[in-house]
Amino acid sequence: MKPQGYTKHFSDIGYIEFRKNAKVKHLRITIKNSGEIFVTIPKHISSKTFNEFIQSKTGWIKKQLKKIDEKNKFTSQNSEDNLRNTINAEIMLWEKVKELSEKFGFHYNRLSLRYQETRWGSCSSNNNISLNIKLVNLPEELIDFVIMHELVHTKIKNHQEEFWRELGKYVENPRALQTKLKRFNLAKL
């Protein structure tokens, strides 16, 4: 049986993807090096129970996210060439975000750019946008797609149908672009 999932936002820690799976017996938290958080839920567990579980683990999750963030910052710049490339990539991405947000009337709080292993971008509950510097290695239509994806999250904090309809107002065929984006392996860029 395939896990069924959905995403929920928690003010203290951000988005968590919940995956129901009939094969598991206990709640399980997985935090990837990208900072993505997944909770696997047994089929018989109520939403009240797993919400209480998350609340009880909030401190631990925050601690793990901080460790991951520090590791990502440390490993992202290890040579003069990387630094030069990073600066050029940052300038390009800053300009692109500014251009698209102004063009379509989006407002975000802060923009941060960093190297990440599995995540192209994210948007926090405070509308802070984080983008992966490796985006500059993608075709322009995918760079624009990721940026618009995060800008739309400043208005809609989930990935339900309303989100995809809104995103479709700014990029053509967003689900096809999402599929195309999945073909790029971040670890190899």
The CATH architecture of the largest domain can be named as 2-Layer Sandwich
Question: H/E element string?
Answer: EEEEHHEEEHHH
CATH topology of the largest domain: Zincin-like
Q: List the domain count as a whole number.
A: 2
Shape: globular
Helix % is 40-55%
Subunit arrangement of the protein? single chain
Strand order of the largest sheet: 1-2-4-3
Most strands sheet: 4 strands, mixed
Q: Report the mean per-residue pLDDT as an integer.
A: 85
Strand content: 15-25%
Cα-atom Rg, whole angstroms?
A: 17 Å
The low-confidence runs, each spanning 5 or more residues with pLDDT under 50, are none
* End-to-end separation: 33 Å
The secondary structure category is: alpha/beta
CATH superfamily of the largest domain: Metalloproteases ("zincins"), catalytic domain
Please explain how this structure is put together.
The structure is a single chain. The protein is of the alpha/beta class and 189 residues long. The chain folds into two domains: 4-75, no CATH class; 77-188, Metalloproteases ("zincins"), catalytic domain (Zincin-like). 44% of the residues lie in helices and 20% in strands. It has five helices and seven strands. The protein has helices at 47-76, 80-104, 140-152, 161-167, 174-182, and strands at 4-10, 14-21, 28-31, 37-42, 110-114, 121-123, 128-132. It is globular, with a radius of gyration of 17 Å. The mean pLDDT is 85.
List keywords for this structure.
5 helices; 2 domains; three-stranded mixed β-sheet; four-stranded mixed β-sheet; single chain; Zincin-like; 189 residues; alpha/beta
